[in-house]
Each structure stands twice: as C-alpha cells, then as structure tokens.
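ping. complex inputs:
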Amino acid sequence: MNKVIEIRDCSAAYGENKVLDRVSLVVEKGEFVVMIGPSGCGKTTLLKMMNGLVVPSEGEVAVNGERLEECNLSAMRRRIGYAVQGARLFPHMTVEDNICYVPGLEKKMLPEEKKMLTEKMMELVQLPGELKRRFPRQLSGGQKQRVGIARAMAANPDILLMDEPFGAVDEITRRGLQEELSALQKKTGITIVFITHDIGEAFRLGSRILVMKEGGIWQEGTKEELQRNPRDEFVKRLLGG
Amino acid sequence: MQLIQILWDRRDFFLTCLLEHIRISLTAVVCAGILGILIGVFISRHKKAAGAALGVINVIYTVPSISLLGFLIPFTGIGDKTAIIALTVYGLLPIVRNTYTGLANVDAGILEVAEGLGADRRQILFGIRFPLALPVIISGFRNMVVMIIAMGGIASFIGAGGLGAAIYRGITTYNMSLTAAGSVLIALLALLSDWLLSLVEKAVNRRYGIEQSN
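pong. complex structure:
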C-alpha cells in the first residue's frame, strides 16, 4: 500500500456555493483513477485540490506524504503533471519551449538538454520531431493535446492530473490518445487522476472509477463493480448513456 | 517651396532644434516608459489601487499642457528639466493604461496552468504574463512616443529647446514658414519614430508567434 494522494474530509466553496462537502479519497501508487459526473459536481475542484490550486476550506490534502499547506507548493507542483482541456499551451512559446517549461523552472537548461528532452518527450507522445519549432497556433487540436501531455510529463512526475484532456479533440484522435495514454501509464507506472464526462472513456482508461454527484463521491469501483451494482438510477443512467 | 528654402537656409538652426527635440523627447520617453510600466505592473497586482491610479492619471491628462508647465515652474524653474517632467507625466497615461490592460487581460486559464505546473509568482509574471501582454504594452508605448514628440513642441514656451523654438519664433515674428517648418519637422519625427516602433512591434510579435493584426 502506497498512498500517493490523500484527501481527508475536504470541503470547498465558491462564495455561498458549496462545491465539495467533506470528501475523502486515497489514491495509491500506479492507480488510474477516473472521475466522472455532471457539471458542477465538484470533480474539477477536487482535482485542483490535489495540486493546491484550490485550498480546501476544511480538511487537509497530502501528496507523497507531505501536507500541501506545509510544503513548498511550487516545488511540489513541479513533481505533479497537470494537463487540461484544450491543452492551454503557452501561445508565445514554441513546442520545444512548452515541453521544457517545467524542468526549465528549476534550472536554466542548455540548448542540448532541451533538444534531447524535447525529442524524448515528442517520441513518447508520438509527435513528429519537426513540429518542435512550431507555435501552438500552428498545430491541430490533437497535436496541441499531445504537446500538453508532453509538457505535463517532461519533469518526470510520478503523478499526472488530467482535467478532460481529450475533451476538445475529435473522436478518432481521442481514441488514439486514450490508447497511447493507457500504454504510457502501463510503461511508466505513473499515477493518474483523470476527469471525463464520457463514460466510454472512463471504462477504457480507469482502473477505478469515481462517480461524483452534488459535491461528493457518489459511488466508486471498477467498471465491473459499477455495472454489477449501480447504487441507484443516477448511476445506472450514467453507465447506460 | 518656401518651406524647403527656409529649412535649407537655416539648416544649422533646425538641426540644433531637431537634436534638442530628440534629446528632450527621448529622456521623457525613457522616464515615462520605465515609470509607466512599473505603475502598470503594480496596479495589475493590486486591483484596488488600479482605479485610483488610473483616475489620477486621467485627471492629470485633462489638465491643459500649457498650464501644467505653468504649475511646474515654481517648483522646477524653467528650462529642459520642467519640460521633461511635464512630458513624462503626460506620457504616463497610454503606457500605464496599456500595461495594465495587457497584463489584466491575459487568459486566466493559461495563468492557472502555469501555476499548476509549478511556476512561482515571479516566473508567471516574467515568463508568461509579461510576454503575453507585450503586444498591448508596445502599442501603448507607440502612442506614448508619438504624443511626447508632438507635445515636445510646447516645451520651448518655458524656455526649453527643441523644434518648438522654431514654431515659437515663427509666431512671435509673424514668420509663417518658420512655424510651418518647425511643425512639419515635428510631424516627420513623430511619424518616423512610429514607423520604427512598428517594426519593433512586428519583430516582437514574430518572436512570440503572434498573428500579425495589421
């Protein structure tokens, strides 16, 4: 048992509006946890708690055994990959500079180091190397998403947080990306927490699926467990559609 | 023709005026540029101060330039120094406003991703926020430069040098072509500077992979 992420009784609110209500969750090393649920269920908030972008109003979060409120948050985040919908690449940087962004925050990188890292990462996410001098606006949606994943993984993190990373690409590209991510996870043993609103994607990727509703974890389990024992109509409908 | 004639006949005088004008404007541009960007960065971080600071700068902007010069004389006397201070103060508005707007309008989602990836405040400001705001800041800078050069014409009313001296002398001696020549040179200087800065702007946009807008 190796607890990588621990959320203990965490709540969060935006003004009056409570989005998470005393949620607890433990993610273990090497897990591929997928969160699914309707918009406003608090899944993005829960994910952002894991890298300190959202600070819980009560409860505490620990990553790799360190409590976020006590650690150097920037340094901690560099060891946690983060990829979001639409990739949100830095538009003023080339593909190479985007990919090398996180390692470059720690120390100034030499051109050869950048070149080597970029080549390695681009191969990992299956991007042709000649794209490395391009700017984000010169890439297709799928290519941007791959660069986003390469950027998230460049500093060799042991955790990867992904907020609907494939939400903005077409179905065929998405299937390809899912397969590659799956293979990547098996190869590297990285721990992934992944948000989607597509149940097919959740089934294909997740070693554990969290169904979220109304600011809490409504039901969790493997694909088979959920299908065999849906908690109620809500879960049944989610699985069905 | 008359204009060219007078420019040629009194070329030494005009050259002195032109160099003076460039010196005074350039000093004011550097002062207003540095000060304006610092204020812009500051108020983009302290949103509460932004309204007040922009308000004050707006009000100063509405003070007629000739009276601003008048107000300054008791404190800083007459001459170049007062002119540079007045031009700096006037130049602040476009650069502060554009720095602020540019920094404030950077896509919040991109800033959040940078933070989530582990960039600290300084790294976000200099690595993400400032470069992304740069096109807007540069266009404010262009406005500022043109304004300072044009406004520099009145500096000679308080005894400073520059092409205003030609205009002023032309007015007081009923020599229209002298006034016209001074004005034309100011306009040319402003246009030339604007054009040079537009080249800088294009180079920066190319460097940062931003689509050319004009």
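The first helix of chain B runs from residue 2 to 9.
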